[in-house]
């Protein structure tokens, strides 16, 4: 007998909210406004993988939020041999956090799939992002009204894939794990985290990376209609 899904939990960054596009726009604005003479494309080639590495360390409790925000910029500036002092790095880090949620590009199909799902399921967010920034992203992108609950790592005290954050989301949403499904882009945090917490899960695999055959996946958000 097929399990009936009642509650759909989404990750936000890299799943609905186009982090890389919005991040690039934030840096473009910062470099222009504060006279940082760097080629944006050259900067991003290094920053994008460095940022992912730092988020992995943050997710696994190896570094603090402050170390994440400083280190990803420091390492990138060092790699491109751009001379900048620590005070300026911290200043730019603060400005990046300020500008980032002001951009609101979503992945193709986001609104359509949320419109499709909302009448059928209760929709929720589980994110490792910082509470204020994530709320601003949802509001500025005008998608906050689709979700009944928002669970972030600050309120849960842990980050995905820790089962505590999934349990926190269940309590907040009044959902049952056996009737819940998680959709996200990170196989470790979102998919394995959800599965180990008793959820079903679907990977948003936009870049078509090779993954284990037993993991359900979609390459475009509208493909979720085939599963839900």
TrEMBL record:
Lineage of the species this protein comes from: Bacteria, Pseudomonadati, Bacteroidota, Flavobacteriia, Flavobacteriales
NCBIfam families found in the cross-reference section: HAD-SF-IA-v1 (TIGR01549), YjjG_YfnB (TIGR02254)
Pfam families (alphabetical): HAD_2
Molecular function per GO: 5'-nucleotidase activity
EC numbers on record: 3.1.3.5
Species: Flavobacterium myungsuense
InterPro entries linked: HAD-like_sf, HAD-SF_hydro_IA, HAD-SF_hydro_IA_YjjG/PynA, HAD_2, HAD_sf, PGP-like_dom2, Pyrimidine_5'-ntase_YjjG
Keyword entries, A-Z: Hydrolase
Keyword Hydrolase carried by entry: yes
Protein name: YjjG family noncanonical pyrimidine nucleotidase
Signal peptide: none
Keyword hit for Hydrolase: yes
Class of the enzyme per the UniProt entry, highest EC level: hydrolase
């Amino acid at each position: 007998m097929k399990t009936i899904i009642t509650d759909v939990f989404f990750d936000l960054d890299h799943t609905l909210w186009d982090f890389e596009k919005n991040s690039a726009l934030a840096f473009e604005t910062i470099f222009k406004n504060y006279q940082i003479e760097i080629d944006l494309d050259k900067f991003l080639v290094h920053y994008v993988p460095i940022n992912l590495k730092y988020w992995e360390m943050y997710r696994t409790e190896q570094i603090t939020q402050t170390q994440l925000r400083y280190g990803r910029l420091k390492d990138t500036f060092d790699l491109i041999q751009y001379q900048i002092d620590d005070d300026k790095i911290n200043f730019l880090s603060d400005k990046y956090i300020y500008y980032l949620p002001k951009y609101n590009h979503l992945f193709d199909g986001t609104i359509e799939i949320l419109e499709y799902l909302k009448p059928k399921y209760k929709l929720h967010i589980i994110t490792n992002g910082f509470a204020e920034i994530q709320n601003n992203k949802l509001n500025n992108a005008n998608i906050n009204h689709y979700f009944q609950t928002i669970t972030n790592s600050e309120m849960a005290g842990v980050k995905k894939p820790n089962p505590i954050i999934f349990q926190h989301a269940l309590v907040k949403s009044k959902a049952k794990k056996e009737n819940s499904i998680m959709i996200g882009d990170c196989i470790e945090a979102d998919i394995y985290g959800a599965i180990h917490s008793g959820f079903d899960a679907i990977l948003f695999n936009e870049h078509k990376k090779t993954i284990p055959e037993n993991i359900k996946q979609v390459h475009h958000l509208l493909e979720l209609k085939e599963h839900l």
